[in-house]
Amino acid sequence: MVVMKFGGSSVGDAEKIRNVCAIVKSKLKAKPIVVLSAVKGITDKLIDTAEKAANDDDVSKELEEIKKKHHSILKELGLNENLVDVQLQEYGKVVDKIFEMKKINPELMDEVQSFGERMSVRILAGCLNKDGIKAKAFDAFDIGMITTPDYGKAEPLPDTEEKIKEFLKKVKEIPVITGFIGKDSAGNITTLGRGGSDYTAAIIGAAMNDTTEIWTDVNGIMTSDPRVVKDAKTIDQISFGEASELAYFGARVLHPKTIWPAVKKNLPVKVLNSFEPSNKGTTIVNKAGKSKEAIKAIACKKNIALVNVSSTRMLLAHGFLSRLFSVFEDYKKSVDMIATSEVSVSLTVDNANDIDKIKEDLEGVAEIKVEKNKSIVCVVGEGMHNSKGIVARVFETLKDIRIEMISAGASEINISFIVDTKDADKAVQVLHKKFFS
Ligand code: ADP
Ligand code: ASP
Ligand code: MG
To answer: How many angstroms separate the alpha carbon of residue 180 from the centre of ligand 1?
Structure first.
């Protein structure tokens, strides 16, 4: 068996959905299990519409656009236009509820986002069936994807994989399963976080002890984001550790948690291009082959916030750091990078949300200054820790760019630093030129 996940970019319109059908068809011998994202742009649209409703704005145009997009795909594919009407109506009811409440709570926000995948799977299964391939659409929560109630970042419960395995063993058709969503034990819909369909696929891959294939719109994991670096090259093989660092530090091609289920069972994950299916893409394995360069790839996470904490008492006094981090923990803010000096601690977080509350909680203990519009640039490669002079070469290349905070050596395979977002692309480009051209 093989788990094949197709992202939103691979299911943007009717023609692309036909292309996905053809790829699945070419893999029938391997008994594919398909995991699908929402039609490109739909998740954003569902969120925007809900936010407008919470604001009491008219959303009839938005609702019509969502309906029209799906209906026109169905029509072009020669399928019944009513195929997703149950989901469209249910979404309409959720929007009505938001109008009444005049706000969206986290549970409702996850339910809002669930409809994209719930519609796309029905379309693809319809398309496959029309093509003579017996397929069946499933909402992940109906096949065992039960999660924690951490809305927006839910985690599968420990027995999820077992449940999924038991369920899928009995399915005769090709399952087409919603990525990204689940339900908590109370029956509320949850999401695994934006881009989370990759994670769903890896969870199902681990459940079935199979290879997971992430089908996207580029030829695998590349030496940099090809939208930023025109001559970025595909990496044939990359280790779990390297892929994990890249994904965590901004390489959107893979959701950062995708690697976890695969590492646990040592299963390969492949990243492939649905617009060039013959390209062999990237294989992520436990131990990757040696590359010529110590550096494998460069990633960038944009628009993060840099938080500078200075102590009003003595900073490194016993217990200060634990007090500091317990406040971040209270607001579930995860910290990506950290540097300390005698009088201050600098750290980075994804966004400045809740920082005002954190400031209040730390009043009298520490002063906090926040700088927005910063980016983390991250250079990754397992060969780095054995190569002399790499750090010097990296920073020598960047001598014209202001660098604020550096972290090297924490994982032996990554050097990261902070720049102003306006300099981020340039930093990635000059580094790429230096190490890969
Ligand atoms: P999907 O819709 O298939 O989930 P995404 O848009 O989430 O696709 O991810 C694919 C995109 O990730 C690519 O189009 C590319 O711009 C971006 N990307 C960022 N870093 C990398 C990288 N190192 N290698 C390949 N793609 C990358
Ligand atoms: N549709 C969801 C998103 O846009 C999940 C995914 O595509 O992986 O974030
Ligand atoms: Mg994605």
So the answer is: 17
- Rounded CA-CA distance 414/405 in Å is 14
The two three-digit tokens of residue 244, written as one number = 């994990």
Atom of ligand 2 at shortest distance to CA of 7?
Answer: 7
Give the residue, out of 5, 35, 37, 145, with the most ligand 2 atoms within 8 A of its beta carbon, to mutate for a pocket test. Answer: 37
Contact (CB, 8 A) for 269 and 284? yes
Q: Ligand 1 within 6 A of 253 CB?
A: yes
CA 113/CA 96 separation, integer angstroms = 15
Q: What is the average pLDDT value for the chain, to the nearest integer?
A: 94
* Ligand 2 contact via 197 beta carbon (within 6 Å): yes
Model confidence pLDDT, tens digit, residues 42-94 = 999 999 999 999 999 999 999 999 999 999 999 999 999 999 999 999 999 99
In tens, the pLDDT along 346-397 reads 999 988 888 889 989 888 888 899 999 999 999 999 988 888 889 899 999 9
- If you measure from the C-alpha of residue 332 to the centroid of ligand 2, how many angstroms do you get, rounded to a whole number? 22
Side-chain half-sphere exposure of 70, counting CA atoms within 13 A:
32
The distance from CA 190 to its chain's CA centroid, rounded to whole angstroms, is 15
